[in-house]
User: Fold this.
Amino acid sequence: GINAEYGGLKKRSERMLYRITKKTLSKHSKSVAQIFSRGVKTEKKRVVTVIPGDGVGPEIISSAQGILRASGAPIEFELFDKPSSSDSYNLSVDLIASISRNAIALKGPFYTPVGSKGYIRNIELRRTFELHTMVTPCYSYPGVKTRHSDVNLVIIRENTEGEYSGLEQEVVPGVVQSLKVITAKKSTKLAHYAFKYAVDNKRKKVTAVHKANIQKMTDGLFLECFRQVAKEYSGIEYNEMIVDNTCMQVSLIDDTSFKTLLTTVNTTQ
Assistant:
């Protein structure tokens, strides 16, 4: 009974996602066409590298593939169900070559053991392909009841610096050190991306989320870069907010100012 109920729920979810995807593809047909126009094509189809990943990855990637097929998107999939080389945890050379050749990948989550040392596949992918910016749209969907309604928020995050620098060492036994690296080059690049995204998508405000009250030099540099770039975009409102307050405002308070903004994040907590 449980399996039948789960199967029915999965089908209903996929149908709902298909309707949303079809609407989105129609609304953004030009940008979708631009994405599919790059990379390798076979018989007028766009080749996409597929990495199911770990945990829930294979299930959600399978559903995503079904939705894309049903939408009629002109693509075919190049599957890598074993992204690591057979004799190590490292990403395989064939996978790296496939992403380089196709220039687009559909990827599920990679599992990283908590407290493990050494190679982290997610970070290695980001570094290899300079995936410095993560864009996470957060929207309210009709019929889906949530605490806040009419949410229209985009989070843009730097993916390779800060805590994601991955630089740690043991100073002496019992004392470890983690280095948070921030550069003006990547902070400025992130700022330009955020403001350009706001202009292109008719957003009204960019908020820089930070921890500069404590991490004065690293996040201080991040904010200084944003302030300089903000001067070039006079039509976009710019403000700054400490990450603690941001989380409280978004999660606990029905604040309408968070329904139409674009947030850039440089710190994790």
Observations:
- Residues 18 and 98 are 27 Å apart (CA to CA).
- Helices lie at 2-27, 29-36, 57-71, 93-102, 121-128, 184-200, 218-230, 243-252.
- DSSP finds eight helices and eleven strands in the chain.
- Confidence is low (pLDDT under 50) at residues 1-7, 27-37.
